Amino acid sequence: MTSSKPRGTRADAVRNRDQLLEVATRVLASPDAETSLRAIAREAGVGIGTLYRHFPTRESLVEAVYRDQVGRLTNGARDLLAEEAPAVAMRRWMDLFGNWIATKNGMLDTLPTLIESGAVGHAQTRDELLNAIATILDAGRAAGDLRSDVTAEEVAAGLIGIFTVAHQSGHAVTADRLLDILLDGLRPQRHP
To answer: d(Cα 34, Cα 20) in Å, to the nearest integer?
Structure first.
């Protein structure tokens, strides 16, 4: 009995799970991709049995993707601030938020069931996202990079509005352009 095999198996299992989450996130964010579990397993390079070992139901896979995306947003605020000036971190975080919204749109058939069952807490997610925005705003205020009179709720409302409008067909505006305008509005006024 060797200890290297279980560790190797565990490493493979972790790698398989991460690959499944990565593929499922990409598939859920793409309006054109096939969203069957079998297609996700195939694209991840694993068998359907491996997918079911990690995620016994579609709901469990969607929940894992949802939690992973929220974690990326909440951790992303701190990670970006460690690398970038607050205004740049805010703009890059806005892109992360847009990716989350796109992925969330691919979950619309399953997400209400998860919220209703309590598996996903809407209020908790909202609080986590507002805290991430507030973290960047606070750093921006301290650095003089971002306005001091803007709340996390206002930024969140702006982001939701932008992604609602930009993703509707027939609109000539792009999310990137609107996010740049929002960021310009978050910068302090410079008076001569």
So the answer is: 14
Query: Distance between CA atoms of 55 and 50, rounded to whole angstroms?
Result: 8
Structure tokens at 152: 């996390």
3-state class (DSSP) for residue 150: coil
Q: Are 86 and 140 in contact (CB under 8 A)?
A: yes
Q: Which residue is listed with tokens 């939701």? A: 160
User: Rounded to whole angstroms, what are the CA distances from 3 to 6, 8, 13, 14?
Assistant: 6, 9, 16, 17
- First-to-last alpha carbon distance for the chain, in angstroms, is 76
What the block records as the tokens of 131 is: 């805290």
Can you read off the two tokens belonging to residue 108? 């619309």
Instruction: Give 3-40 pLDDT, tens digit per residue.
Output: 434 444 578 888 999 999 999 998 888 776 667 889 89
- Among residues 106, 100, 105, the alpha carbon closest in space to that of 159 is found at 100
pTM, rounded to two decimals: 0.80
94-130 pLDDT per residue, tens = 999 988 888 887 777 777 777 788 777 778 888 999 9
